[in-house]
Structures are given as structure tokens and as C-alpha cells.
Amino acid sequence: MDHFHKLDGRCNCGNIRFRYYSPASLADIVLRACKCRACTKHGGRWLSHHHGILVAEVFDEELIRLVQFCNSESDFYACHACHVAPFVLCRSETDPRAVLNANTLDDFCAIDCNTHYHDYSSEPTARRNARRAVEWINNVTLTFPSIHETTEEPWALTHV
């Protein structure tokens, strides 16, 4: 992973932590911000790269709330303790795909980045899936150290 840039992030209380290996340098990162009502209200600025790698840990699974907006095809992994959602996993694909909330990165100021604004709320499902296949992170690992196991389907938590 010599050509990857390592970025660490977490929810506010640290219950959800992640490491993102980006093939793009910090100077080349372009953020996306959805202009739908839900994304606008929580101020998410999203980043991903198809060839990026996301390794995430949830320390207390009981504090996780899977929140869905708009099309209900993706789960926002929100920490119930601090109400921050560091990433979103897409459930419409066979393999999980993820996008990161740039505001949850450590030592990174999302405000200084180039941001492209879109409204994905009325995007047809086929187009949305095609876009996510080429833009979202396709190498995702989600672990739950407190129960000492790795889930094979991290996007399929049952309690909300």
C-alpha cells in the first residue's frame, strides 16, 4: 500500500473508528455534497474512491443505529451516543460499497476542499447503482472487536 494515503476518522465519541487508504492525495480529494433535505440538514460532505480501502471498527454494537434516508438503499452508520455518522454502506449491491463523511476525518478540514454539489434524491436506481459502482469504496471491512468476530455481511446489522 505504498501509493496509498492513510486517513483516520471516527465518530465524536470514538465508538466508530475507521482508517481509509486513499489512492488520491489530500490535495486531489474532491468532496461530494448531496443537496437533498436529509444530507443538507446534517451537513455531510462525502468522499470515496473506487480503489480506496475502508477498514472500520465498531466498539459497542448496541450503540449503532442504521439510519436510512430518501431511497432506503443505504445505511448511515450512526453512533447513538454522539449522533455522528462517519460512513454510509450501500445495501443495493452484492458487495458492500461505502462513502465516508469527510467531516469525521481526523486532522482534515473538509471546508477547505473542493466540493461538488448534487441532488441525488430523484436519481433512478439503475443510474445510482452504476454511479456507486465507479465512485464508492469497494473494499470494505467492518469489525466488531467487542464481540471478537468479523461479520461477513457488515451491511446487514439487524437492530436499528
TrEMBL record:
Name listed for the protein in its UniProt record: CENP-V/GFA domain-containing protein
Domain CENP-V/GFA intervals: 7-121
Top-level taxon of origin: Bacteria
Gene3D superfamilies on file: 2.170.150.70
Family that this chain belongs to: Belongs to the Gfa family.
Cross-referenced InterPro entries: CENP-V/GFA, Mss4-like_sf
Gene Ontology molecular function: any one: carbon-sulfur lyase activity
Keywords, alphabetical: Metal-binding, Zinc
Organism annotation: Acanthopleuribacter pedis
